[in-house]
Design brief:
Number of helices: 10
Strand order of the largest sheet: 4-3-1-6-7-8
Order of helices and strands: EHEHHEEEHEHHEEHHHH
Helix content: 25-40%
Radius of gyration: 18 Å
Distance between the termini: 23 Å
Number of strands: 8
Largest sheet: 6 strands, mixed
Shape: globular
Strand content: 5-15%
């Protein structure tokens, strides 16, 4: 079984800079390339300064509470003896911070530079056009058997062209009740598992870490009870809450 976790970027980053990649840097391709080169430690003459090289794999860049919990769950399941036939991949939706310049979702192994996450809350809806970003996102999602979305409503809205069409792969969105309207639950492959204050209290965690705790506990349950728990959740997404509260 191939499982994808689609996660939002978090503000907490290992490389804390006063001048990370900004929205203004993305205004032109030349400026973006120049700033990424600078954040990789190269000056205008091409000399490299290791102390100014801030690039990291995406999976090592983020330090927010949600990501810390999620990473712990991924670590446990990937170290399990049965891992292999079932795999769990982690991707992030936005690509401007990629060192390789590709316009596609970012895998945790892809190299990125530190960036200001605030502009992500102001993105327009991405259309199926010359950028082909939604098309690549669709191709990514449809290559998996099950997708978990930990995305914020802002991210979902910008990618709504991807999520507004019924597809074969089940999409399980972790969202509080107040944010359910971000997705179209009339689509048979779209499911919402409610997070929120009640679940937060039961799991004794913070609102910021909640979705990460849910995924960590699901991974722990798979390690303890067998990887068939993912199949159970695929058949009945609401089973996720029963599993993580056991």
């Amino acid at each position: 079984m191939q499982i994808l976790i689609f996660n939002s970027y978090t503000t907490g980053q290992k490389q804390k800079l006063k001048n990370p990649l900004s929205a203004e840097d993305c205004s032109s391709s030349d400026r973006l390339k120049s700033r990424i080169k600078e954040l990789c430690g190269f000056n205008d003459e091409g000399w490299h300064d290791n102390s100014r090289d801030y690039r990291l794999p995406a999976g090592e860049m983020f330090t927010g509470p949600l990501y810390v919990q999620l990473k712990e769950g991924l670590k446990q399941i990937r170290e399990h003896k049965d891992y292999g036939k079932t795999i769990v991949d982690l991707y992030f939706p936005w690509y401007h911070c990629r060192v390789d310049g590709k316009m596609s979702p970012v895998n945790e192994k892809d190299i990125i530079v530190p960036f200001d996450t605030a502009p992500l809350h102001e993105l327009d809806v991405l259309e199926f056009d010359d950028s082909e970003v939604p098309e690549r996102t669709v191709d990514l999602l449809e290559s998996y058997d099950l997708v978990f979305s930990l995305l914020r409503p802002d991210d979902i809205e910008s990618l709504q062209r991807v999520f507004e069409v019924e597809r074969s792969v089940p999409l399980i969105f972790l969202l509080p009740k107040s944010q359910r309207k971000a997705v179209n639950e009339d689509l048979s492959n779209v499911h919402v598992v409610e997070t929120g204050r009640d679940l937060q209290k039961k799991l004794r965690t913070s609102n910021y870490a909640l979705k990460g705790v849910v995924m960590r506990r699901l991974c722990e349950a798979a390690c303890r009870d067998g990887f068939q728990v993912f199949e159970e959740v695929k058949r009945d997404p609401q089973r996720l809450l029963e599993i993580v509260l056991q």
